[in-house]
Amino acid sequence: MMTRIVLLVLDGCGIGSLPDAESYGDAGCNTLQRLAAISKGLSLPNLEQLGLGLLGQFQGIRPMTQPEGCYGMLGFTTKGKHSLAGHWELAGYVIEDGPPPCETFTGELASGLEAALGQKTLGNCRTVHLEPIAEFGAQHQKTGMPIAWIDTAGTIMLAAHEQVVPPEELYRLAREARRRLKATMPIVRVVAYPFAGQPGRFAVTERRRDFAVEPPGLTLLDHLSRASQLVFGVGKVGDLFSGRGVTRSVPLFQAHAVMDEVLRMFSKAPRGLIYANLPIMSPDLQDTVSTLQHVDRRLRDLQDCLKVGDVLIITGDHGFDCARPDPGHSREYVPCLVSGPRLARGVNLGTRTTAADLAQTIGEALGATRLPWGDSFLDALQSR
């Protein structure tokens, strides 16, 4: 019987382009493969033992003949390549139709944002980097105008120095921008980035908050809550679901801090779901490699804590092709690695067309009612 599930989402960890990737400009993308090639090989022994090397050719990662867990790949039916679409489908909610997200900082967007905030903004560009803070931070300190930009997946970033615009005020502005913009254009999320420091040494703080549209329908988290299961969200998980269905949310935005919190959760969550988002990928290749290898080392600590009835699931929410001249989100498959005491080992879960299969599996394991999308693969996990 399964009583507690730990779901770790490696943000941006794609392992190969989806069939419709070309329509997104992402044909041939393979985040992990390119990252491994550029770094001349990755050292991820714990993910390797779980079967990661059986999901593709990644330099430095061996295909194990007897992996410690079950392995497969998850695809996405929901259109888009942002965290909101990825996490909602992982939680069993699929958006089959809808307008594509806005991916450029248009004049219409600038006007809408200005109307929502009651003031002009600085930056007003498209990038996945945090460079607008360094570039416009000093001007922001003089004028008080927030810094705004859009990423490659339609998310608006709104940044302000904590001594110029207090974080709570920045949250209010981001929340109002989300509310006002959703009526006129397909903006799915506004992220508030408080930062500190002086010109040349600006740095974002741990007070980041995500303000996203609420899922239009019920998700796995709602179903688990109705089944009286505990749901703990770590990282940006709580924000991505607007807090709905989450027993407790711990917003953290550094991978090491997220792993620390997940390990602490074992003494606080005797049952239910511990659902964490781990920020892995960034435009800085060396930082990405270092973070990914740090998470891999911490996995052994987590595995050592697992008891009979515990399940560890490692997956992703989209790709992040860091090898392109303009790095950004990419339309890719993600890994699905499942392990735990007395679970089956070495079972190939195959290539699943929708990540909702994972939600259906978790829901069935924890006694929740069936979701509208996805097929459970729980039977394949049962030890033979």
Automatic annotation (TrEMBL):
InterPro entries: Alkaline_phosphatase_core_sf, DeoB, Metalloenzyme, Phosphopentomutase_DeoB_cap_sf
The protein's enzyme class: isomerase
Keywords of this entry: Isomerase, Manganese, Metal-binding
Keyword Manganese attached: yes
GO molecular function: phosphopentomutase activity
Keyword Manganese attributed: yes
Domain Metalloenzyme stretches: 4-367
EC number per UniProt: 5.4.2.7
Domain of life, source organism: Bacteria
NCBIfam families noted in UniProt: PRK05362.1 (NF003766)
Family statement: Belongs to the phosphopentomutase family.
The protein's name in its UniProt record: Phosphopentomutase
Organism: Nitrospira defluvii
